[in-house]
Amino acid sequence: MCLGIPMKVIKIDGDEGIVVSGGLRKKANFSLMKSARPGDYVLLHAGFVIEKIKTKEAEKTLKALNNL
Amino acid sequence: MKYVDEYRDSKLIARQAREIREAVDPGHTYSFMEVCGTHTMNIFRFGIRELLPANIRLISGPGCPVCVTPNEFIDKAIALAGIKNIIIATFGDMLKVPGSYSSLEKERGAGASVKIVYSSIDALDLAKRNPEKDVVFLGIGFETTAPTVAQSILMAKRAGVKNYSVLCGHKTMPEALSVLTEAPKLDIDGFLLPGHVSAIIGVKPYRFLAARGKRCVVAGFEPLDIMQAISMLIKQKRPGIEIQYTRIIKRGGNVLARKSIKKVFEEKDSIWRGIGKIRKSGLVIKSKFAEFDAEKKFRVQIPGARDHAGCICGDVIKGVKTPLECKLFRKTCAPEHPVGACMVSSEGTCSAYYKYG
Question: Which of B247, B254, B255 is the best mutation test for A, with the most CBs of A within 10 A?
Fold first, then answer.
């Protein structure tokens, strides 16, 4: 139930916006993550953006895994 | 899907598995609890147990909101569903959960109005579209979901929506982990901490776990996340709290979300299926927002809740038994005709064992 889906922000208008991933396009509420901007990758949970994805950290994790 | 597929790379998973095999002390048995139901489901779905050495034991924890919601809550929801003009709006997983005497699905079949929604906002929209009805949203879930429900109440208040309310069953995770670490039957070396609860609360509320000698790693949900977190748990020298899921987790969590929780809810003792009453582990709606509190608005009376004979869901939630030790498992209890909540929820331990075990 605590499922979060990584999605890309397309548009933000006030607290409302549109996020996409693969073929999925969804309305999202940004009232819990006001610093998100179009182009950011975010985590969507139950219609709300709850966090931004830190792309540099994501790369670091993958790099560490690749170096095993 | 970006930030999903790359963490499911089978070559990297095989390499991580080898690294874990090389890192373990063969003379030691490691017991780690994966707290979150989404972890449990993905551990089974991606066959992670099979990739680990035999001396690493993974124990499923209490992080499935549907599973830990007691019968009394379902009974109340069913009683509300029986009131004329009420529409129950709920996450889909709640539909089949058997309460003491019935389920929402059965009640819907008998004519009650029960709608599945994806978000509290959908429930609020349902209320706006149906001004002659009263929409009651079933607010269950941990710190990840609680702020989204708090926001819906704040939005309803701002918009002057009078026909929206929440039956509040939210719970908070650190208090439950505290009780589990005190349980004598359960010997856990460390915890895979829940990624998305931690996205909200940060890492500070878990400090007591390290102080009690438990290793902790906040883990993401993809197979590589889980494997890497297990590797970090094995290698942790001194009990502490590390973060594997660095692309999401900030040590301080999501401040806005916590403010929202604090504005709308207050802590209260709460009953967890299988564990019983845990001090200050529940969230209830503050009296300031009483008009959105379905319990206060409708004051339904329910007969005493009762448990299902033979169901060991409670012990499964605590991690002291596995579904395979249940006499009902795969016999009278299956996803099509569940007896206990752990078989209903898509992230319940019994459901995971049934599908993939």
Answer: B247
